[in-house]
């Protein structure tokens, strides 16, 4: 390679080329020199900053650190540069750089307070300011850490000063929320341990008056005024009356607004106050303010036996002239309370301290009163020569307490004892259950819900009031009567004088219900079912005695209404059986324990099957086969009937589809729908979904409802019936004539037919009453253009009678019981049993 000359150019090159290369070399040397000087200036400035400064890459790696940083962190530069910022703060989360870059990318700076770590492991608080920076051509950030240790020490000294000062200090933000209160403030306001400052200082707990005794609004308080005006409010005198403790304190308050840097409105306000209650005890101003709060002041000079009363205290006692001594002051009190007051005063004279008494007395005009008297030895009086205190009229509070006590024990509708009162009374009598001699009557009104549903809640309330009056009249002074809830009543009686007293009272109550109840033009026969239990044989605890009386009442209601039943162990066993049935019933659907049988509905003239009714059967692995009349009522009570009803609907439609696929055509199946199922779910939508699932026309399904739906003349009820009818589903009222027979409602519902209850068909043609009912129902169906199906047809004579009456369709054992799906299919395959659409 050729050698270069001193200028850095190859001597073999031509002159122009050598000139260009010489100039380039000189420029390169100048550039290197400038960069070197720039780097020196950067380093000088960087190290001149008194606070720790670090340069960080985008991922948080430390690219550079100044001398103040090495000093603050007590580490060499090499121990930090090239490491992640976590080396200075191990507690930083893994994504700590995300919010920093979000702020910097918006053009903002990012400020945060953290605790950094020195090389020796000690920590110190810092405030870090971060900004965008380009370092060595790379996107970076510069972070300046300001050591807060001295500021924190100053704040601590300031807080300690705030806590030891004898003045109350309260700091509130611009929304007037309390952010700080010192110990003196807590003491002045009487806020002890375990109490929340914000709760205790809520304005609704205090009545605040100015120096003239006028009540102050929240806007007139000094803290609010300072926040609103931005001006200091100095030495304002206020009286604060605590509504619950009934104590009045007087404060002088100075409120100082405080502004944030650059703020135009105060960011918070500091109120400094002193308790001046003692200084104002004898002033006329104080007496005026206490008058507004209905609190009087008094003082007793024990040495001279002189009594001083403020004007308000004299007014409260109702004295025609101020008492001159303590005995005259006590003369308006009842004897027992006079002795209590005198004893409390003597104790203060002997040992110091104070007292707080509630006393009763009479004014000079004879009107009774209640007062609260607070007294204590005057502070700083070594000889206890003066006892001072306050006197407050609490008559209104006592009357209110008595009213509340009565209300708490009384049912507001009937005026009888309520549930809590009778439970308390029963518990008191059963403290010694072996010798209690207590009996309990549990009374439930029969058919109350009918009145409530048909005539409305107003009539229901009137019925309860009339029933309560009849029960109270029947029991008289022989027992305590309580409304236990709803239409249930309890009678508590003593059996020590007459062991048969409960039975006598039960007969008297039943006799009281012999006459009908009248509401305007309506008349209802309301009876009662009564259960009786006794202590100790039927229970030694209130709930046990009530539960057993309830069991006896339940048995009386289901055997024969308008009667009474005493509790027996056998009833308890049957109750246990009911609970077992209800427990197993909840699992029956999931355990596939239900099945359906199908009873044919037959053309009474031609004998052909026209439809079927789906009947549910339950085979339980513990209880065996249970009759529907045993478990359906339980399902209605527990609400399980809704889920069971949904299963029946789906299973019946599935079976119709299966018969259709077997070539047997579309068999219409009637399914019973309980009232709870009708009211508790979107029945029309469920039916639509099931029909669609099994690809069945609406005419394949007939829904049978109880008469209870007739009284639900609500828009939702009519809407559901209209939607079902629009699907093509047949709608029938089951067991018509047994229940409400609400003909006025019957004509409004878009139904297709009625079912004549077997309760009436079983008596025809020989029973005249049953014949009359059947004729009436048949006439109703014809007049309204409704179909009619007779249930319980068991003899040829019944069939002939129903035919002559014009009833077209019937079902019952004369034709077939409930058949399994296969048995029903076999009937359909017989030529003479083909499904008829007639």
Automatic annotation (TrEMBL):
**EAL domain: from which residue to which, for each copy?**
578-832
Q: Which SMART domains match?
A: EAL, GGDEF, PAC, PAS
| Taxonomy, superkingdom | Bacteria
In what residue span(s) does the PAC domain sit? 110-160, 355-406
Q: Which CDD domains match?
A: EAL, GGDEF, PAS
Q: Please state every residue range assigned to the domain named GGDEF.
A: 436-569
PAS domain: from which residue to which, for each copy? Answer: 154-230
Q: PANTHER family under this entry?
A: BIOFILM ARCHITECTURE MAINTENANCE PROTEIN MBAA (PTHR44757:SF2), DIGUANYLATE CYCLASE DGCP (PTHR44757)
Q: What is the name attached to this protein's record?
A: EAL domain-containing protein
